Write the C-alpha coordinates for this entry.
Amino acid sequence: MNKLHELLKEERIKQRYSYRSLADKAGINHSTIRCLEVDPSYRAKPDTLKKVAIALNIDSDKLMEMAGYTTHPTKRNSLNVEGDNDKWKPLNEAQRILKEINISNPPIDVYMVAKYLNIKVEDLVGPNHLSGVVGSKKEKAIYVNKAHPKVRQRFTIAHEIGHVVLHGFSESSKKGLLFRMGENHDPKEIEANRFAAELLMPKEMMDMECEKYGESLENHISDLAHKFNVSEAALSIRLATLYSRFF
Ligand SMILES: [Zn+2]
Protein backbone atom coordinates (compact mmCIF):
# COMPACT_ATOMS: atom_id res chain seq x y z
CA MET A 1 0.00 0.00 0.00
CA ASN A 2 1.26 3.46 -0.80
CA LYS A 3 0.35 6.93 0.43
CA LEU A 4 -2.36 7.44 -2.19
CA HIS A 5 -4.10 4.21 -1.25
CA GLU A 6 -3.91 5.02 2.44
CA LEU A 7 -5.25 8.53 1.97
CA LEU A 8 -8.19 7.41 -0.15
CA LYS A 9 -9.14 4.62 2.19
CA GLU A 10 -8.83 6.86 5.21
CA GLU A 11 -10.99 9.59 3.68
CA ARG A 12 -13.59 7.17 2.38
CA ILE A 13 -13.99 5.50 5.76
CA LYS A 14 -13.91 8.80 7.63
CA GLN A 15 -16.67 10.12 5.39
CA ARG A 16 -18.62 6.86 5.80
CA TYR A 17 -18.73 5.83 2.16
CA SER A 18 -18.78 2.25 0.95
CA TYR A 19 -16.95 1.43 -2.28
CA ARG A 20 -20.28 1.57 -4.03
CA SER A 21 -21.67 4.76 -2.52
CA LEU A 22 -18.44 6.64 -3.20
CA ALA A 23 -18.33 5.24 -6.73
CA ASP A 24 -21.93 6.35 -7.29
CA LYS A 25 -21.13 9.84 -6.09
CA ALA A 26 -18.00 10.05 -8.24
CA GLY A 27 -19.75 8.50 -11.21
CA ILE A 28 -17.25 5.68 -11.69
CA ASN A 29 -17.22 1.89 -11.32
CA HIS A 30 -17.06 0.64 -7.73
CA SER A 31 -14.33 -1.83 -8.63
CA THR A 32 -12.17 1.14 -9.59
CA ILE A 33 -12.43 2.49 -6.04
CA ARG A 34 -11.43 -0.90 -4.76
CA CYS A 35 -8.49 -1.09 -7.22
CA LEU A 36 -7.37 2.35 -6.07
CA GLU A 37 -7.29 1.29 -2.45
CA VAL A 38 -5.95 -2.23 -2.58
CA ASP A 39 -3.86 -2.60 -5.73
CA PRO A 40 -0.52 -0.80 -5.26
CA SER A 41 0.34 -1.07 -8.95
CA TYR A 42 -3.00 0.23 -10.15
CA ARG A 43 -2.71 3.55 -11.94
CA ALA A 44 -5.97 5.42 -12.38
CA LYS A 45 -6.61 7.83 -15.23
CA PRO A 46 -6.31 11.52 -14.34
CA ASP A 47 -10.02 12.20 -14.84
CA THR A 48 -10.89 9.28 -12.54
CA LEU A 49 -8.68 10.74 -9.81
CA LYS A 50 -10.31 14.10 -10.30
CA LYS A 51 -13.79 12.60 -9.94
CA VAL A 52 -12.76 10.83 -6.74
CA ALA A 53 -11.14 13.99 -5.39
CA ILE A 54 -14.31 15.99 -6.03
CA ALA A 55 -16.51 13.31 -4.46
CA LEU A 56 -14.31 13.26 -1.33
CA ASN A 57 -13.76 17.01 -1.40
CA ILE A 58 -9.99 16.74 -1.37
CA ASP A 59 -7.33 18.50 -3.44
CA SER A 60 -7.18 16.83 -6.85
CA ASP A 61 -3.69 18.18 -7.61
CA LYS A 62 -2.43 16.50 -4.49
CA LEU A 63 -4.00 13.20 -5.59
CA MET A 64 -2.52 13.55 -9.06
CA GLU A 65 0.89 14.18 -7.65
CA MET A 66 0.60 11.24 -5.28
CA ALA A 67 -0.37 9.08 -8.24
CA GLY A 68 2.81 10.20 -9.98
CA TYR A 69 1.20 12.22 -12.74
CA THR A 70 3.25 15.35 -12.35
CA THR A 71 6.46 13.38 -12.00
CA HIS A 72 8.25 13.03 -15.29
CA PRO A 73 9.95 9.66 -15.91
CA THR A 74 13.40 11.27 -16.05
CA LYS A 75 12.66 12.95 -12.74
CA ARG A 76 11.71 9.59 -11.31
CA ASN A 77 15.25 8.47 -12.15
CA SER A 78 16.88 11.31 -10.33
CA LEU A 79 14.85 10.48 -7.25
CA ASN A 80 16.21 7.00 -7.13
CA VAL A 81 19.41 6.07 -5.40
CA GLU A 82 22.47 5.61 -7.52
CA GLY A 83 22.53 2.38 -9.44
CA ASP A 84 18.76 2.21 -9.53
CA ASN A 85 18.58 4.15 -12.81
CA ASP A 86 19.16 1.06 -14.88
CA LYS A 87 16.15 -0.58 -13.36
CA TRP A 88 13.86 1.97 -14.97
CA LYS A 89 15.80 2.38 -18.18
CA PRO A 90 13.98 -0.29 -20.21
CA LEU A 91 10.62 1.18 -19.21
CA ASN A 92 11.66 4.80 -19.70
CA GLU A 93 13.17 4.09 -23.10
CA ALA A 94 10.08 2.27 -24.32
CA GLN A 95 7.84 5.09 -23.08
CA ARG A 96 10.08 7.73 -24.62
CA ILE A 97 10.00 6.07 -28.04
CA LEU A 98 6.20 5.63 -28.02
CA LYS A 99 5.84 9.28 -27.05
CA GLU A 100 8.22 10.44 -29.78
CA ILE A 101 6.35 8.50 -32.45
CA ASN A 102 3.08 9.64 -30.90
CA ILE A 103 1.63 6.18 -30.45
CA SER A 104 -1.06 6.30 -27.81
CA ASN A 105 -3.32 3.37 -28.62
CA PRO A 106 -2.84 -0.37 -28.96
CA PRO A 107 -1.84 -2.34 -30.91
CA ILE A 108 1.69 -0.98 -31.10
CA ASP A 109 3.11 -1.11 -34.61
CA VAL A 110 6.57 -2.60 -33.98
CA TYR A 111 7.52 -2.20 -37.61
CA MET A 112 6.87 1.51 -37.32
CA VAL A 113 9.00 1.62 -34.17
CA ALA A 114 11.83 -0.21 -35.96
CA LYS A 115 11.57 2.13 -38.93
CA TYR A 116 11.65 5.18 -36.67
CA LEU A 117 14.86 3.88 -35.12
CA ASN A 118 16.34 3.09 -38.55
CA ILE A 119 16.37 -0.60 -37.84
CA LYS A 120 15.58 -3.00 -40.66
CA VAL A 121 13.53 -6.07 -39.90
CA GLU A 122 14.72 -9.06 -41.92
CA ASP A 123 13.76 -12.71 -42.16
CA LEU A 124 15.66 -15.19 -40.10
CA VAL A 125 15.89 -18.70 -41.40
CA GLY A 126 16.91 -20.80 -38.49
CA PRO A 127 15.93 -23.48 -36.01
CA ASN A 128 12.59 -23.17 -34.28
CA HIS A 129 14.06 -22.42 -30.85
CA LEU A 130 15.71 -19.29 -32.24
CA SER A 131 13.35 -16.32 -32.28
CA GLY A 132 15.56 -13.49 -33.39
CA VAL A 133 18.98 -11.92 -33.49
CA VAL A 134 20.53 -8.47 -33.90
CA GLY A 135 22.27 -8.45 -37.27
CA SER A 136 26.02 -8.27 -37.65
CA LYS A 137 26.21 -6.58 -41.03
CA LYS A 138 26.99 -2.88 -41.48
CA GLU A 139 23.33 -2.00 -41.65
CA LYS A 140 21.24 -1.81 -38.50
CA ALA A 141 19.05 -4.86 -38.78
CA ILE A 142 17.31 -7.40 -36.66
CA TYR A 143 16.43 -10.85 -37.89
CA VAL A 144 13.19 -12.50 -36.92
CA ASN A 145 12.08 -16.10 -37.31
CA LYS A 146 9.24 -15.85 -39.80
CA ALA A 147 8.12 -19.41 -39.09
CA HIS A 148 6.82 -18.29 -35.72
CA PRO A 149 3.27 -17.00 -35.14
CA LYS A 150 2.82 -13.28 -35.84
CA VAL A 151 2.27 -12.38 -32.20
CA ARG A 152 5.51 -14.09 -31.24
CA GLN A 153 7.36 -12.32 -34.05
CA ARG A 154 6.08 -9.01 -32.72
CA PHE A 155 7.45 -9.81 -29.28
CA THR A 156 10.77 -10.89 -30.79
CA ILE A 157 11.03 -7.64 -32.78
CA ALA A 158 10.30 -5.61 -29.65
CA HIS A 159 12.86 -7.64 -27.71
CA GLU A 160 15.59 -7.16 -30.32
CA ILE A 161 14.80 -3.45 -30.60
CA GLY A 162 15.28 -3.42 -26.83
CA HIS A 163 18.81 -4.79 -27.24
CA VAL A 164 19.67 -2.15 -29.82
CA VAL A 165 18.21 0.70 -27.74
CA LEU A 166 19.54 -0.43 -24.37
CA HIS A 167 22.80 -2.13 -25.22
CA GLY A 168 23.76 -0.52 -28.52
CA PHE A 169 23.71 -2.00 -31.97
CA SER A 170 27.37 -2.90 -32.28
CA GLU A 171 27.56 -4.37 -28.81
CA SER A 172 24.41 -6.42 -29.37
CA SER A 173 25.47 -7.75 -32.75
CA LYS A 174 29.04 -8.40 -31.63
CA LYS A 175 27.88 -10.44 -28.69
CA GLY A 176 25.35 -12.15 -30.92
CA LEU A 177 22.58 -11.68 -28.42
CA LEU A 178 20.17 -14.30 -29.54
CA PHE A 179 16.66 -14.58 -28.35
CA ARG A 180 15.79 -18.08 -27.41
CA MET A 181 12.67 -18.94 -25.53
CA GLY A 182 13.26 -19.93 -21.95
CA GLU A 183 16.77 -18.56 -21.65
CA ASN A 184 16.13 -15.39 -19.80
CA HIS A 185 18.54 -15.35 -16.89
CA ASP A 186 21.08 -13.04 -18.49
CA PRO A 187 20.49 -9.47 -17.17
CA LYS A 188 20.57 -8.13 -20.74
CA GLU A 189 17.87 -10.60 -21.74
CA ILE A 190 15.73 -9.57 -18.78
CA GLU A 191 16.15 -5.91 -19.75
CA ALA A 192 15.22 -6.61 -23.37
CA ASN A 193 12.12 -8.48 -22.20
CA ARG A 194 11.09 -5.67 -19.86
CA PHE A 195 11.52 -3.20 -22.72
CA ALA A 196 9.47 -5.43 -25.04
CA ALA A 197 6.66 -5.81 -22.49
CA GLU A 198 6.45 -2.06 -21.90
CA LEU A 199 6.64 -1.32 -25.63
CA LEU A 200 3.89 -3.75 -26.63
CA MET A 201 1.73 -3.44 -23.51
CA PRO A 202 2.50 -0.01 -22.06
CA LYS A 203 1.46 0.32 -18.44
CA GLU A 204 -0.56 3.42 -19.11
CA MET A 205 -2.64 1.70 -21.81
CA MET A 206 -2.97 -1.43 -19.67
CA ASP A 207 -4.24 0.65 -16.75
CA MET A 208 -6.91 2.16 -18.95
CA GLU A 209 -8.06 -1.28 -20.07
CA CYS A 210 -7.96 -2.64 -16.52
CA GLU A 211 -10.15 0.22 -15.44
CA LYS A 212 -12.56 -0.39 -18.30
CA TYR A 213 -13.05 -4.08 -17.52
CA GLY A 214 -12.76 -3.83 -13.74
CA GLU A 215 -13.70 -7.05 -12.01
CA SER A 216 -14.68 -8.76 -15.25
CA LEU A 217 -11.14 -8.59 -16.60
CA GLU A 218 -10.70 -12.35 -16.43
CA ASN A 219 -13.50 -12.78 -18.97
CA HIS A 220 -11.72 -10.54 -21.43
CA ILE A 221 -8.21 -11.95 -21.61
CA SER A 222 -8.53 -12.93 -25.25
CA ASP A 223 -10.15 -9.59 -26.19
CA LEU A 224 -7.31 -7.80 -24.50
CA ALA A 225 -4.64 -9.97 -26.13
CA HIS A 226 -6.32 -9.25 -29.46
CA LYS A 227 -6.42 -5.54 -28.75
CA PHE A 228 -2.69 -5.37 -28.01
CA ASN A 229 -1.94 -7.99 -30.69
CA VAL A 230 0.06 -10.14 -28.29
CA SER A 231 -0.29 -13.76 -27.25
CA GLU A 232 -2.56 -14.56 -24.33
CA ALA A 233 0.50 -15.99 -22.60
CA ALA A 234 2.41 -12.71 -22.93
CA LEU A 235 -0.63 -10.78 -21.76
CA SER A 236 -1.09 -13.02 -18.72
CA ILE A 237 2.54 -12.53 -17.73
CA ARG A 238 2.08 -8.79 -18.12
CA LEU A 239 -1.04 -8.75 -15.92
CA ALA A 240 0.78 -10.76 -13.29
CA THR A 241 3.77 -8.39 -13.41
CA LEU A 242 1.73 -5.20 -13.32
CA TYR A 243 -1.14 -6.09 -11.03
CA SER A 244 -0.27 -9.41 -9.42
CA ARG A 245 -3.35 -10.81 -11.11
CA PHE A 246 -3.17 -14.36 -12.34
CA PHE A 247 -5.36 -15.94 -14.98
ZN1 LIG B 1 17.89 -11.23 -26.36
Notes: Residues 3-81 form a domain with the 434 Repressor (Amino-terminal Domain) fold (CATH 1.10.260.40). The radius of gyration is 20 Å. The longest strand covers residues 120-124. Residues 159, 163, 177, 179, 189, 192 surround zinc ion (CB under 6 Å).
